Amino acid sequence: MFARLLRYALCATLGFAWPAAAWNANGHRLIAGIAWTQLTPPARQHCLQLLERHPDYPQWTQKTRSTAPLAIFAEAATWADDIRDDPRYYDADRESPVPSPAGLIDNRRHRHWHYADRDRQGQPGQGELDRRSEQLLHTLRQDTRSTTAVWALPWLLHLVGDLHQPLHVGHAEDLGGNRFAVENLLTPRQPFTNLHAYWDGLPGRQSLRGERLERQLSRLLQQYPAPTRGEPRHWYAESRAALADAYPEHDGSLLPVIDAEFDRRARRLAEHRLVAAGYRLGWLLEEICGAAVPRESSR
After folding, report:
1. Cβ distance 128 to 113 under 8 Å?
2. Most buried by CB count within 10 Å: which residue of 87, 205, 249, 284?
3. Could you tell me the pLDDT band of residue 4, with boundaries at 50, 70 and 90?
4. Which CATH number fits domain 2-297: 2.70.150.10, 3.40.640.10, 3.40.50.720, 1.10.575.10?
5. Would you tell me the crossing angle of helices 41-52 and 57-64 to the nearest 10 degrees?
6. What is the DSSP letter of 164?
7. pLDDT band at 159, cuts 50/70/90?
8. What is the greatest pairwise CA distance in the chain?
C-alpha cells in the first residue's frame, strides 16, 4: 500500500498528466524518414507540394536549416506536437479560439487525437487516436489537392507514428503509463520518471537531422524487416498487444525499476514499432499521393 501511495505521490509531484507526447521528435522524424524511402518520385513530389502550401513550412525550413525534401518531410511529422506550445493554436476545451494561420482550415491542437486508451476489460476510455487516424486516412483518400489535404497530411504523418507507440493505446487505469512511476537505474541523476515518458524518449535525446538521421534510417532499415500492411485498426491492436512487454517486470524497494535488461528489450521493441510505422506510413502515402501527380499533370 505504501509503495502504491508513493507511486501516485511521485506522479503528482512531478506533474505527470495525460496526454504526453508520443515518441519524441526523433521518433517521428525516423518514422517519416522510413516512409520517405517507400515513396516513388511522383508521390514524393505531391507530398512536398502539399507541405510547401502549409503555413508552417517556413518554420520547418528554419528548424532544419535546409530545404532538402527528406529534411522537410521529416520535420513536418513533428508539427502536431510542436503546436502544443505555439500561441497561434489553441485547446478548444479550455481556451478561446485564436485566428488561424492563413491557409490552414483548423488551428485547434486536438490533444485527444494523440492517444486512445482502454481499461483492462477492453472498454474504451479517453482519446480519439484510432478514430481520427481512420478519418484522416479517409479524408486524404478522397481529397489530395485542397487546403483540407494541406492540413490533413501533417496530422497523418504524426498520428500513424503515435498509433504504433504502445503507451498511447495504453491502460486507462494508469493513464497510459503517465501515472505509473518508475525508477530508471540507467539515469541516476534523474532516476524518477513515469513509464509513458520513458517510452516517449526511447528514440534518443539528441536532435536527429541531416547525416545523423540518414545513418539511423539506414541502420533501422537493415536491422528490421518490413511488417505486414494492414489498416489502422490492426496497428492499434498490435500496440495494445505490445503493452504486455511495455511494463518493467522487477520491483525495487519502492518502485518498479528500469534496469539494463528491460531497457535493452524495450529499445528493441520501440525500434520495431518505429520501423513498422514508417513502412506503413510510406505505403499509405504511396497509395494516396502516388497517383495524384499524374492526374494533375494530365489536366
Report:
1. yes
2. 284
3. low
4. 1.10.575.10
5. 110
6. T
7. very high
8. 70
C-alpha cell of 282? 510510406
Cβ atoms 90, 96 nearer than 8 A? yes
Interatomic CA distance for residues 145 and 149, integer angstroms: 6
H helix runs in the chain, sequence order: 2-14, 25-37, 41-52, 57-64, 69-76, 79-82, 129-142, 147-163, 195-200, 210-223, 232-242, 260-289, 292-297
DSSP state of 205: S
Query: Rounded to whole angstroms, how far apart are CA atoms 232 and 168?
Result: 14
pLDDT value at residue 3: 52
79-102 core/surface letters (b: 16 or more CB in 10 A; e: else): bbbbbeeeeebbeeeeeeeeebee
d(CA 158, CA 163): 9
| Cβ atoms of 136 and 159 closer than 8 Å | yes
Going by their DSSP bridges, the two strands 257-258 and 192-194 should be labelled as unpaired
Cell of 176: 497510459
Domain boundaries, the chain: 2-297
Among 79, 80, 69, which residue's Cα sits nearest to residue 33?
69
**In the predicted model, what is the mean pLDDT of residues 110-120?**
95
| Structure confidence at residue 292 (pLDDT) | 74
Distances (CA, A) of 200 to 22, 164, 188, 204: 5, 11, 19, 9
CB burial of 152-176 (b: ≥16 within 10 Å; e: otherwise) equals bbbbbbbbbbbbbbbbbbbbbebbb
Nearest-angstrom CA–CA distance, 286 and 229: 13
Mean of pLDDT values over 98-125: 95
Whether the bond into 87 is cis, omega within 30 of 0: no
Query: Region 151-161: what's the mean pLDDT?
Result: 98
Which of 227, 201, 225 lies closest to 283 in space, CA to CA? 227
